[in-house]
Write a structure and sequence with these properties.
InterPro entries: Biofilm_reg_signaling, EAL_dom, EAL_sf, GGDEF_dom, Nucleotide_cyclase, Rev_trsase/Diguanyl_cyclase. This is Diguanylate cyclase/phosphodiesterase. Pfam families: EAL (PF00563), GGDEF (PF00990). The protein is an alpha/beta fold. The protein has helices at about 5-30, 35-80, 90-95, 95-120, 130-145, 160-170, 170-195, 220-235, 260-280, 290-310, 350-360, 360-380, 395, 400-415, 425-430, 435-445, 460-465, 475-480, 485-500, 515-525, 540-545, and strands at about 150-160, 200-205, 210-215, 235-240, 240-245, 245-255, 285, 315-325, 330-340, 345, 385-390, 420-425, 450-455, 470-475, 505-510, 530. Helix 6 (about 160-170) packs antiparallel against helix 7 and helix 7 packs antiparallel against helix 8 (about 220-235).
Length: about 550
């Protein structure tokens, strides 16, 4: 019954007990009550017994009931948010175990709420403000600004952090992030002492950090802060026995010139940071209108790329690999082109990087893979036994089902394995995981050839190169560009060619553009060439007309 407390119920119980004792005393005293005086004495005795019984029951039950009522009221207050008030003393006196349990419960709930609040506001790895907390604080700071002047948002992306996670593990990666946060705090404190106000640092996600400076005199100050961040993060990090060198690509957006809201500042700083990445990493870039136009063009290109795949706007061109002794094409590289409805013929250098960033490279790679498998099968049936090479990107190879999709395309078109060659970059080959190497080796045993592309642009481990399942190495054009005019270039190229041939692999020289280059390479010992001097990429029909060689059956003499 609502509103009835345990104390009132205890009082009712005491009254009932007193009344019962009164009635019993009265009944038992009837035998001695033979006259008015006897009845009076019996009545007095019954009243005394009932009263004493009532008082005793009320004293015993009501005190406990009052403590329980107090505990109930305290729990109701806690349910409405009061976790700080002490448990009433009468509860501790009458029900000590319950009092201790309530104090322990409230303490634990307070601790849990503080922990939840900390998780809601701070990044657990670095102790910095997390994305939601950072955005909330910056929006408040922008809303409270009354003075004239600049503010700046720095978008910081670590260079090379992924390799730390991959090689040293996520525990080392978390330790490194915490060290990065510590150095950013030092930069923020230095700027605060220089009059920039209380800088706010946040970790948005992964290896992305942000720094908001609420007050700056000019743009030069923003550039100076960016240099301070680069210097702080450019120093070597010591993780126990491991030494890690990092850098940072930084995008800078200033309030109000580059955005008068947090979302606009973040978008501008992000655009500037990506430009810093594309310009070679480990640098800082200020947002400009030109960068915004480039970003808009890149976004439009991403949308058009997906539409182009749906509309089948891509085609393949073929560039031969010539064996100079016989003059015949023994292989060919398939190169993708985009017949854009508004931009004419778009070269891969303009859209492949965009496809890499957006993830569309996987769908584009599947299109190339299917088209090459169909073409290779058709050539094999026609007797044109030239391997067709296709470039495989790191994003494609990172797909768990890449080799399954490749085999499915080969089976669907009945493509002979000997007609295909996979080209992977030097850096990708050096970092390839054991499982990927095993699958690549299995494919190679079935007859597919494997080549390393752009050799000389990365950092090769020679013992690693010897262990890779590779048939051919394609020397990058940068190694042969000056070979006809530079003795140093000839020495380097000769050493690289001798090394590759010494490991039992074929050498293909890319980017041959002059007869002088080719003559010098022949002296060094190269026989396989690919480049504009020999042939530019061309469509399938033109390629077959110029370079297809169909062996004729030998005629037997009669």
């Amino acid at each position: 019954m609502q509103g009835v407390t345990l104390t009132s119920r205890a009082t009712a119980f005491a009254c009932a007990a007193g009344a019962l004792v009164f009635i019993l005393s009265l009944v038992l005293g009837q035998d001695q009550a033979t006259d008015i005086d006897g009845i009076g004495r019996s009545l007095i005795i019954a009243i005394l017994c009932g009263t004493l019984s009532w008082a005793s029951a009320r004293q015993t039950v009501t005190t406990t009931a009052s403590a329980i009522d107090g505990a109930t009221e305290r729990l109701l207050a806690a349910a409405h948010g009061d976790l700080q008030s002490a448990v009433p003393a009468d509860i501790g006196h009458e029900l000590p175990d319950l009092s201790v349990a309530m104090e322990s419960l409230f303490s634990q709930v307070r601790t849990n709420l503080e922990h939840v609040q900390e998780l809601a506001l701070f990044d657990p790895v670095t102790g910095l403000a997390n994305r939601a907390s950072f955005c909330r604080q910056v929006e408040r700071m922008l809303g409270e600004r009354s003075e004239e002047g600049l503010a700046a948002l720095f978008f910081i992306d670590l260079d090379g952090f992924k390799s730390v996670n991959d090689t040293l593990g996520h525990a080392a990666g978390d330790q490194l992030l915490a060290r990065v946060a510590g150095r950013l705090r030092e930069v923020a404190m230095a700027q605060a002492s220089a009059g920039a106000g209380d800088c706010l640092i946040g970790r948005l996600a992964g290896d992305e950090f942000t720094l908001f400076v609420p007050a700056m005199p000019d743009l030069d100050t923003a550039c100076r802060i960016a240099r301070a961040i680069q210097f702080a993060l450019g120093e070597r990090f010591d993780l126990g026995s491991q030494h890690v060198d990092l850098g940072a690509s930084i995008g800078i957006a200033c309030y109000p010139a580059h955005g008068d809201t947090l979302s606009a500042l973040l978008r501008s700083a992000d655009i500037a940071m990506y430009h810093a990445k594309h310009q070679g990493r480990n640098r800082a870039e200020m947002f400009t209108t030109e960068l915004a136009l480039e970003a808009a063009d890149r976004a439009e290109l991403e949308r058009d790329l997906l539409l182009g795949l749906q509309r089948d706007e891509f085609l393949l061109e073929f560039q031969p690999q010539i064996e100079i002794v016989s003059g015949r094409a023994i292989g060919v590289e398939a190169l993708v082109r985009w017949v854009h409805p508004e931009r004419d013929l778009v070269m891969p250098g303009s859209f492949v990087p965009v496809a890499e960033e957006s993830g569309a490279i996987v769908a584009l790679g599947d299109w190339v893979m299917g088209r090459v498998c169909e073409t290779a099968a058709r050539w094999a049936r026609a007797g044109v036994m030239q391997r067709i090479a296709i470039n495989i990107s790191s994003r494609e190879l990172a797909q768990a089902d890449f080799f399954l999709r490749l085999r499915h395309a080969m089976d669907a078109h009945q493509t002979p394995a000997a007609m295909l060659e996979l080209e992977i970059t030097e850096s990708l080959a050096m970092d390839m995981k054991a499982q990927t190497l095993d699958q690549l080796s299995a494919l190679r045993r079935d007859g597919v050839r494997v080549a390393i592309d752009d050799f000389g642009t990365g950092y090769s481990n020679l013992s690693r190169l010897r262990e890779l399942p590779v048939d051919r190495v394609k020397i990058d054009r940068s190694l042969v560009r000056d070979i006809a005019v530079s003795a140093e270039a000839r020495t380097i190229c000769s050493a690289v060619v001798g090394l590759i041939q010494g490991l039992g692999m074929e050498v293909v020289v890319e980017g041959v553009e002059t007869e002088a280059q080719m003559d010098m390479l022949r002296v060094i010992g190269c026989t396989l060439f690919q480049g504009y001097h020999l042939a530019r990429p061309t469509g399938e029909a033109d390629y077959l007309a110029r370079f297809a060689f169909v062996p004729q059956p030998e005629r037997r003499s009669v």
